Amino acid sequence: MLLGHRLKQRFGLARLLGVNDRGQDDFSAPTVHACRFEGSTKRLVTSDGTDATSEAVLFTKVEVRPGDGLWLPGTTPGDLNTRRLPLRITPCFDIRGALDHYEVYV
User: Fold this and answer.
1) pLDDT for residue 44
2) 3-class DSSP state for residue 5?
């Protein structure tokens, strides 16, 4: 792994399970995973094709999917006031073509 030795921070991840009978997103209980967190403002196109401004990027080995709930390092996983959604998720591959890590823009 290109980034393994640099994943010293932690972020929270709650999987999007679907929509409940009230039309609200339903998430799994949050779990904590290793990451590297970099704050940087960047304009990008989201997975649905809209323009957005990213405030940070997470580098992680854990797959993050569109709609999943995220808690950045320094926040409390499960706190709905600090939950973020990924704007774009980019899988990154090593020189042999194997999946190395994900870049998650929030």
Assistant:
1) 77
2) helix
Coil vs helix vs strand at 44: strand
DSSP 84: B
Do 67 and 85 meet the contact criterion of CB atoms below 8 Å apart? yes
Spell out the domains of the chain, with CATH numbers in brackets: 9-105 (2.40.10)
Euclidean distance between the first and final Cα of the chain, in Å? 23
Q: 3-state DSSP call for residue 96?
A: coil
- CA distance to 24, 51, 58, 78, 96, per residue, from 9 (Å): 30, 28, 10, 17, 27
- Residue type for 62, please? V
Q: What pTM, to 2 d.p., does this model score? A: 0.84
pLDDT (tens digit per residue) in 15-56 = 999 888 888 888 999 999 999 999 888 787 776 778 888 889
Give residues with Cβ within 8 angstroms of 38, minimum separation 6: 56, 57, 59
Cβ atoms of 103 and 6 within 8 Å: the answer is: no
